[in-house]
Amino acid sequence: MFILTIVFLVGLIFSVQSLLLSYSYIDLSQGPQTSDSNIIMVISEAIRETIETTDFCSDAQGNLNELNTHIVTGMLSLYDIDISYSINCGRWDNPYPDPPPVEADVRIVGEATDTEAGLVFYHNITG
Looking at 20-78, which runs of residues are DSSP E strands? Predict the structure, then answer.
């Protein structure tokens, strides 16, 4: 009787494990989210954060150049990323919807895609 109980319990544990194991598989049907639009969103957020934390317009160009170097050399080698900036220090403290102080053009060339985005950024987000 003892052996029969042990065999039953082992079978029960194995059955429950098999049922629960199907819920713990990692879904690999979708690849990593490295589409052009996701990369542009990451770049846009990095530029926005850099502009908002830069106190003086005179420092913005250097900070953006460092960021550009970091992005272009640090991103996936499958992509060719080109970022160009236009900074107008006369507009540095403009609130939205006045003309933006920083305009950026981002171009990403992948294996089969070519995506461009024109972005605008404000240092003075509070108005």
Answer: none
Phi-psi region of 25 (alpha: psi -120 to 50; beta: other; left: phi over 0): beta
Residue 72 corresponds to which amino acid? V
Q: Which pTM value belongs to this model?
A: 0.67
Helix H or strand E encompassing 63: helix 57-74
Cα gap 109→15, rounded to integer Å: 50
pLDDT in tens, 62-119: 989 888 888 877 755 567 888 899 999 998 888 888 899 999 999 888 777 788 999 9
The H-or-E segment that residue 74 falls in is: helix 57-74
**b/e burial code for range 26-65 (CB count within 10 A of at least 16 → b):** eeeeeeeeeebeebbeebeebbbebbeebeebeebeeebe
21-35: pLDDT as tens digits: 666 555 555 555 567
Nearest to 44 by CA among 91, 99, 102, 127: 102
